[in-house]
Amino acid sequence: MPAVTMDQLVSLCKRRGFIFPGSDIYGGLQGTYDFGPLGVELKNNLKAAWWRANVYERDDMEGLDAAILMNRLTWKYSGHEETFTDPLVDCRSCRSRWRADHIKDTCPNCGSKDLTEPRPFNMMFKTQVGPVADDGSYAYLRPETAQGIFVNFNNVLATTSRKLPFGIAQIGKAFRNEINPRNFIFRVREFEQMEIEFFVMPGTEDEWHQRWLDDRLAWWRSVGLSSDNLQVYTVPKADLAHYSKATYDLMYRFPIGFEELEGIASRSDYDLGSHSKEQDSLGLSAKVGRNDDSTAKLTYFDPESKRHLVPFVIEPSAGVDRGVLALLTEAYDEQQIKPVTPERAQAVADALAAFVKSVGRSEKLPAEQRDAMLERAELIGKDMAASMAQIPALLDMPGASSIELGKKLRGQADPALDESYRTVLHLKPALAPIKVAVFPLKRNAPEIVATARQIRKSLQADGDMRTVYDDTGAIGKLYRRQDEIGTPYCITVDFDTIGQGKDATLSGTVTVRDRDTMQQERVPIAELQTYFRGRV
Ligand code: ATP
Q1: Which tens digit of pLDDT belongs to each residue from 409-432?
Q2: What is the CA(224)–ligand 1 centre distance, in A?
């Protein structure tokens, strides 16, 4: 299959209910997305896997859930008020705004080179706190979850009696007023982070930095990302954030190329030091701004040397939304399972050619949308057998709905796709939104329906193995729907199951179908629990 494009993912996510544009019915709000019935499951499963691996399965970690709104001083001393900025440029021709480091001296919208000088733009959202709007009454929506961990350092230490090294893990929302949110959920203004602040003895930070890099890579592989699609980028010294001694960016091969999925920073004693009072007595190695507002020393008493010290910090910080996007990118697959008849193939090719002509002629379409559609259509046309399954994504591209002939193309493509192709999400079973789907072979056979419903109920009752019942189509169609959303197993209850089929030995058994191999086997109902427990 050709590499997955963002359009294919966006189309699948919308079609099947993973992710919708935020506030859609009011024209949307740029940089926001809503996770639908399947998206919320996938996202929760990813977060749960992270929490399990990083909190439950380690013996050196505690969890935390700090408030999103924090005292403004937090962001003064963290350095964000002053330095959490991106370079903003305006295009004087079309008045669009861009991040200077994301464009090459040319406005991507109109091609003009008449741009303003870059100026720093602070990305923190301000919001008013309390009923009186005056200068002092605002707070920021946190742009990262990390600071909630640092300001709670003493609380966690005092209540858990932890010894170094230990970490605090947190998952939560973060907000950044990105100049140019784009690329679906890759760069948004509201997102979630999974962050760890790992506190270590000064002098051991390099070793721990490397260990965390290895650990985090291994974890991303364990949830299904392949080594080929992961890269480590060592951030050059000149590009390091103000607090960082060294940073590794963990890069994933998204449809837009290799981009950051997680940052793993060695933050020295900067954060605890800058939030501490009486800094002169702490022997800090980081250069921090003087703090006359903090009421606490964020230090650790080392029982061996019998002195108070400020731990060094390693911070693995991953984006949940980028994680979901990486999982979808990795899992997405389109397969031809049967040849298309030559007549059908010809009909689709003709409809595609007519659609392309119509797009080329359309006067309603902005040039950018037209060119993008033509480019995609050409790629599909070049190798129709391999790319026919991309036609729905083509028809979901911005602007496509204004092309009349799109309906005709859909009408020709849909039956061919139904018959000969399938889209599959090869998600790891633990991550899949739904683990098992149960179908009745006939929805007007009461005993079959009752048995199917009972199986669903008992599998679900066993625990958190999300199981659904579906009787809204023929079995083939139901299989395809579940393949497309990544359900690893489907169960079909038929006449044999209820002892009314041809083969009496199959009574009390059901067909279990595997998503990836499409193989089917008969499994006794009584053994289903054990069968799935080992597999999902
Ligand atoms: P970028 O350079 O892509 O803007 P960053 O280096 O500013 O990212 P960090 O501050 O290191 O990002 O944040 C940690 C993680 O949070 C990132 O690796 C990413 O997964 C996630 N993240 C950051 N900004 C966004 C965003 N606007 N939308 C979605 N996820 C984000």
Answers
A1: 999 999 999 889 999 999 999 999
A2: 21
